[in-house]
């Protein structure tokens, strides 16, 4: 599967790990989170090696919509209710600073990545009440939020929350430049981590600290991330030519769309569902019909899907991997907002590795327990996992190599998907998304 980004950016290839090595920090994974973390560590004169199973940006970062924003759907009202005003304020501040940091980096290093400042909007075609409340809550938390009655979308809305001064870019052009001075070994899969030894298919790297920036952390014990995270899939369609809609948009009603321009094209996003819970409606057909309805002369130029890790309380896990592994760090659970949160993670983890505290450590620590915010998701995640696992023992089931759940066929995407933890595999069984780390034998 290709995306607009994978089709249009050429990132120079890197060699695999040429044998055993010693370094201060190993970062596993060369997506947005891993590359930014390595970049800030290197800026602080730490010796870093990045190990990537495939290619730089070949994971979910290559398939994102690449909006850089602290506007994460209707999160602020929810966070105030479930984790309190102070934690919600710090969550917003970490992400808003991350948005601004992208602008600073891109200007400072002259990175050519189609970076454009844009306002971000949450819109509804059904009601304005919850948007008014969200705008008011976000403003109280210090975010650049206003409530608007009109937008440049090609249909009327009831209202919208506008966050000013946000941005969009080409994520792989950005990664190409920001990774250029880093030591990255591609086609080097980490198989095991034993204490300070990172064991790959190409050799062993010994390190003082290890960062897991692998989208989904693949070591199950300790950490137990598989018990506190699931994945959600969404679909993207590239259409054009389309006039500017002057902003980045996300609908809050059910069955609504995400919009952003990319030059004279438009990226439509649609159809969120738990990976492995296949919807009845074909999302690509729905998107094409909507595209043709809104823009009758438009052509479909591309389509793809992506998935992201969802935590129980809606806040990413950034910090030490487990109390039992104080020298292991993790950045995951970005909830489809991994552009700003990868930057926040990179800043937080690089400080923690330098032995410094940040005001955001407690907000994102994987060790937190927000019972009120997590209970409902925990119950439904556990039920789905038990169902998937029990299906795995049935005769004739195609099982996931991660923990043995029964895989489900996604007929729209032509992939096998795990309903428990979200691993996915191409039609021929080749692994396409973790936490599984190996392919499944060829399926006829
Ligand atoms: C449809 C969709 C649209 C989205 N749009 C937006 C958006 O507009 N704005 C936004 O902020 N966020 C968005 N997101 C979320 C965002 O794309 C992700 O959160 C982000 O890309 C995750 O980056 P990452 O570095 O954590 O993971 P990845 O990019 O997946 O990187 C992880 C890397 O680790 C490597 N790896 C895995 N296991 C190993 C191993 N054992 N050894 C070595 N390497 C390994 C993988 O090969 C991969 O390259 C969207 C998500 C979806 C699903």
From TrEMBL:
List the InterPro entries: FAD-dep_OxRdtase (IPR006076), FAD/NAD-bd_sf (IPR036188), Rieske_2Fe-2S (IPR017941), Rieske_2Fe-2S_sf (IPR036922)
Output the PROSITE patterns linked to this UniProt entry: RIESKE
Ranges annotated as spanning the membrane:
none
Q: What is this protein called?
A: FAD-dependent oxidoreductase
Q: Where is the Rieske domain?
A: 400-444
For this protein, the record's SUPFAM superfamilies field holds: FAD/NAD(P)-binding domain, ISP domain
Which Gene3D superfamilies does the UniProt record give?
A: D-Amino Acid Oxidase, subunit A, domain 2 (3.30.9.10), FAD/NAD(P)-binding domain (3.50.50.60), Rieske [2Fe-2S] iron-sulphur domain (2.102.10.10)
Q: Which UniProt keywords apply?
A: 2Fe-2S, Iron, Iron-sulfur, Metal-binding
Q: Does the keyword Metal-binding apply?
A: yes
Report the domain of life of the source organism.
Bacteria
